[in-house]
Write a structure and sequence with these properties.
Helix 1 crosses helix 5. The protein has one domain (13-219): Rossmann fold (3-Layer(aba) Sandwich), CATH 3.40.50.150. The radius of gyration is 17 Å and the shape is globular. The chain is α/β, with parallel strands linked by helices. The chain has 8 helices and 7 strands. The chain is 36% helix and 23% strand. The structure holds S-adenosylmethionine. S-adenosylmethionine is lined by residues 9-10, 12, 35, 52-54, 75-77, 80, 104-106, 121-123, 126.
Length: 224
């Protein structure tokens, strides 16, 4: 039997230093609002996995909240992890405890039911649709029954925003492909994969005229 290793992960190292100002200039707070949409729901939860956390903006918000969580931050990019670590280090008056793991999440799998909560902000759109079902199933296995998973990402709404959103998303993919070697070329809807993985949608908020969403999913407690 032969095993094929996946291609190397997208390389966000070079982008890490520019990531925050690019977002500030281009997204005018929409991505931040999406990331924080379900902060209150995750605050009482522990342990929490922040997967593909990037420069650590959600980590910082969580750490500044009332959270006493054990937090595991996972990212393939050493530079992103370093920025996340530095962001919380100087002002870290938090009860939360943070571990940092540098890993390609296609090869990293959380221990079964290890987490009470997960957040994947603008991560799932980094993967081609063929890789998503396995990845989502592995993350879901890492959640306890009743555990929460916040998924934030881009979407292409119907109606008047359909064409502008398609153009914007195509532009984003072209830019990220050039800057990081991102393998994904288009946006896949993870909804059916999350449902197949035993998750149920609890709440959903839309931002930027419906082009950005944040969803709160909960792992079902018993098979139906
Ligand atoms: C688009 S950025 C999103 C960062 C952050 N979550 C946010 O909300 O801005 C995607 C992040 O996922 C990480 N990433 C991409 N592919 C990955 C992989 N295969 N394994 C682990 N991390 C990955 C990147 O290094 C980057 O930090």
């Amino acid at each position: 039997m032969t095993f094929r290793r996946p291609s190397p992960p997208a390389d966000f190292d070079r982008l890490a230093v520019h990531y925050d100002w690019i977002e500030a200039v281009c997204a005018a707070g929409c991505l931040r609002r999406a990331r924080n949409a379900f902060l209150a729901e995750l605050t009482p939860v522990s342990p929490i996995g922040l997967i593909g956390e990037g420069t650590g903006r959600f980590l910082e918000r969580l750490a500044r909240s009332d959270s006493a969580a054990e937090i595991t931050v996972v990212d393939a990019s050493r530079a992103m992890l370093e920025r996340a670590r530095r962001r919380v280090a100087p002002t870290f008056r938090s009860r939360a405890r943070v571990d940092y793991v540098q890993a390609d999440v296609r090869l990293w799998e959380p221990a079964c039911e290890a987490f009470g909560g997960l957040a994947t902000h603008f991560l799932l759109d980094c993967f081609p649709s063929g890789e998503l079902p396995g990845l989502i199933a592995a993350f879901a296995r890492g959640l306890r029954p009743g555990g929460l998973w916040v998924v934030s990402d881009f979407r292409i709404p119907s109606g008047v925003m359909h064409r502008p959103a398609r153009a914007l998303v195509a532009l984003l993919y072209a830019g990220f492909r050039r800057a990081t070697g991102l393998g994904a070329q288009s946006l896949a809807d993870p909804t059916p994969m999350l449902e197949d993985a035993g998750m149920e949608l609890r709440d959903r908020r839309l931002f930027a005229a419906g082009v950005v969403y944040s969803e709160l999913w909960r792992k079902r407690t018993a098979s139906v």
